[in-house]
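In this supplementary section we document a worked example of the pipeline. Step one takes a protein sequence of length 209 as its only input; no multiple sequence alignment statistics are reported here. Step two produces a three-dimensional model, which step three serialises into structure tokens for compact storage. The input and output of this example are shown verbatim.
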Amino acid sequence: RACATTATMSLEDEIVPVAVTEARVTQAQVLCDQGFGRALRFETFNDYLDTIPLVPRFSTEHEQRFPLLVLVDSRVNSMFACSLLGLYYSTMLWKPDNLPDSYKSCGEECFNTDQPGTDDSKVYWIRVQDGRKSQGILPNDAVKAFAADEVPLTVREGLALYAQHPGVVVNHHLYLPGSSHSCYGTHHILVLGEWEGHLSLNHKPEAEG
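The serialised model returned by step three reads:
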């Protein structure tokens, strides 16, 4: 188990945006190839790319502490993103677009984002560490030990991380304590990883972390 985190932006981070970079085009292309552009009804890749902000210049310290650059397009909701990324939902390994009736009430509307200021319509860049440094520590305990500029990933940010860096879930469960699942209370944390040979977005009680 491990708790993935990102950094809050500092003034140093925000001063100078980088001009259009290879990373901006490459990561936008990854999401477009997965169907995000089509889901948002953009006719061409360039139409989608026009909505992607420039990559901010992060501080050297943040680049070292949070080595993974990630484009987050939260205009596509979590359940639909799971479907686009070929992920199952829960350890029952249901396809997100084919949930049983008894489980549909635990769909997208039951995800809670605990991170203040998150806007579901935002497209933004973050730098991330995948949580391996906190292996063996319960997610909520890891959160308590975060630095002042460190925040836990939300479910949409975790899915974005997987889209750009799928290796983060190889032999690793990615805990996302920036979001919880309200059908089971805030003590249920979202986690992305492999169950029975299939990649799935699941929720687990904190005590089982």
